[in-house]
Amino acid sequence: MSALTILHLLPWLNYGGVEKYVIGLSAALQRRGHRCIIVSSGGKLEGEADAAGIRHIPLHIRGRRGLSAVPRLAAIIDREHVDLLAAHNWTAGAVGFLASRLARIPYCFTVHGMREPIQRFLVYYWGEKVITVSAAGRDHLIRKFHLPPQRVVTSVIGVDAERFRPGPPALSLVHELGLDRAAPKIVHVSRFSRGKGEVALRLIEAARGIEGTAPGFQAIIAGVGALADEIAARADDANRGLGRRAFVFVGGRSDVPELMSLADVVVGTATVALEAMACGKPVVAAGKAGFVGVVTPETLAAANATCFGDHAAPERVTFDNLAGAIGGVLSDASRGEELREFSRRAVLRSFTMGHAAESVERVYGDVLSGSRPVRRIAAFHLNQVGDLLFSLPTLAALRRRFPHAEITSVLRPNLAELMQECPFIDNVILRRGGVAREIRVAQELRRRGVDVAVAFSQSSSTALQTFVCGARTRIGFVDADTGWLLNRRVHVRGLPWPGKLGRLAICLGADAPGSSYVGMLRIPSAVRKRAGALLQGHGVESAARLAVIAPAASGRQRYKGWYPARFAEVGDYLHERWRTTVVLVGAPGEAVEVSRVASAMSARAVNLTGETSTGELAAILERADLLVGVDSGPVHLAAAMGTPVVVLFGPTDPSRTAPQGEGHEVVTAGLDCGPCTKPCATMECMKAITVELVTAAVDKVFARAK
């Protein structure tokens, strides 16, 4: 999948399996090329997120005041250009759902635990896909919360197998905690909430039974939560009863891998169980829902299906079954060794963060493209030639993502010839302007049953048409006029350019489009013949060497223009130095400006201004050896046809709108003020481009062609 900006939302970053999962998942997704942000109220694990290279943005979303965070979260989405919001908690789900609707981006909800069925009447924020981390969790959501089966997806939890790996006991921790190096050691890490904390209490009650099979054992208990004080007090009572320090309560710890290194057996559930297995430790699975027992090759599938006792279990946790399972591992050295080898292998095979990221990434892709099949797509194009060309890689990406969908291009009549044989679309509908005609276009699309409307254009009329045509998904840019008519907004601003338009495809689940439109145009043979006849009618021989000059900028962008007298000097240079036939091109409204170039030239130029259709112009440019022009449509049309160009850039940014492909020369004056967002009346950046700079660029192009 292409690079996305993904926002992971949860209430806090304190010690806990969900928090560690979100940090690990974010890091793994970043390794796959995405950008991840965690938004939460903060907590003890902020340092871990920072160490993993994950940006954390603090935002209080807990309690009754949490809903007041919705507009602030929407502002973060906008500022950070977020493509998808993923919530990882019931409170976070409510806030994230509302913020995603306000910002109009896709939303995904991950359910990490079990809830009472009565809660389904309060949950409005499921999203198109709901992720759960166990088969039992999926079954619970389907049976008790009445979610459609196709809406609920199971993913693995996943652990960081590099951080959690087999290694020698951390002796510094042995000294810090005052442990007996020779004692058999049990490690239990958990969140000590009501329910989960019961496992620690039963473990303490099992002291006598464990002592019978593993004399002198020590159990290190780590975690925080509502029952922490009670667990610590019970541990002290048990130690007094045994007459030694058998239980070591250490509270919340961030050095869990080091704790695991001390263990001969780990008692845990969910993430903790998998972390222990990644460290090559035998695991007794016991959690909030009950007791699973020793995780072996025979019981792994059942343990994973219940989240290792956190979501379901065959029996309750008791001191008897804990003592029996722990004693059975500690008293049999050969069995313990077999389990250590099995545990690490099992994690590497199926439970790394890479596995989790790959699984979740597929779900995110489905969320982006929508839960229902996409049968018909309407693409609403911008009105300029260059902008149409910029959109071709995006159309190609949409075709790859939805190979069976019917794709219709909606565009102005002057662009139609360029799309007649486009391999990425199936139909063309013309927009001719006028309210009545625009309504007829929308009605035609509604009759065809459009599922997705893609707005390349940011105009009010385009947004209105996407709405009126009845498309289920209406995607465009956040800075579109009347953008509130869209229900999916891509949070990128600015002028159209290939990378920006490509975000539309990416945010529909497509792979990243290429940046180059070169070779994507298909000009009909009839159009080529007309272009050849036009040149012949003006006395241009078929073997003539052509240099095309496109001197004019479009009507609303005159600030990009150069001077007719200077273009005339360049034209004479092309004729005299490189023995070319100079052809002048432009739209009908540019006839006066182009005629000034022609009249200022000493050599004869062929003036085709207003005489070519867009398709005929493309065919002529394909035949040409060079085009010289300002940042305008003909420059991109020539580049698309594989013809080298010399293009003059002043106020606009060549890093965004330079012609695609190779062999081109970009000429700028190099002024400190350029490129700019508000062109000045004096046009100093264009004035500073000399004829000599342009002819030197011409020489470079022709020198490469020798």
Fill in the keyword field for this structure.
single chain; 706 residues; alpha/beta; 7-stranded parallel beta sheet; 6-stranded mixed beta sheet; 28 helices; 15% strand; elongated
SSE order and pairing:
Blueprint lengths: L4 E5 L7 H15 L3 E6 L5 H6 L3 E4 L11 H10 L4 E4 L2 H14 L3 E5 L18 E3 L2 H9 L8 E3 L16 H7 L7 E5 L7 H9 L1 H7 L4 E5 L5 H15 L4 E5 L4 H6 L3 E4 L1 H9 L4 E4 L4 E4 L5 H6 L13 H12 L2 H18 L2 H17 L6 E5 L4 H17 L4 E6 L4 H4 L7 E4 L4 H14 L3 E4 L4 H9 L4 E5 L10 E3 L7 H9 L18 H13 L8 E5 L13 H15 L2 E4 L6 H10 L4 E3 L6 H10 L2 E5 L2 H8 L4 E4 L5 H4 L7 E3 L16 H4 L3 H15 L1
Parallel strand pairs: 1-2, 1-4, 2-3, 4-5, 5-6, 6-7, 8-9, 8-11, 9-10, 11-12, 14-15, 14-17, 15-16, 17-18, 18-19, 20-21, 20-23, 21-22, 23-24, 24-25
Antiparallel strand pairs: 12-13
Helix pairs in contact: 1-15, 3-4, 7-9, 8-13, 11-14, 16-20, 16-25, 18-19, 21-24, 22-23, 22-28
Provide a short characterization of the protein structure.
This protein has 706 residues and is α/β, with parallel strands linked by helices. The chain is built from 28 helices and 25 strands.
Report on this model:
With 706 residues, this protein is an alpha/beta fold. The protein is built from 28 helices and 25 strands. The strands form 4 sheets. The protein has a 7-stranded parallel sheet, sandwiched between helices. A 6-stranded mixed sheet has the order 10-9-8-11-12-13, with helices on both faces. Strand 9 (218-222), helix 9 and strand 10 form a beta-alpha-beta unit. The model has no long low-confidence stretch (mean pLDDT 94).
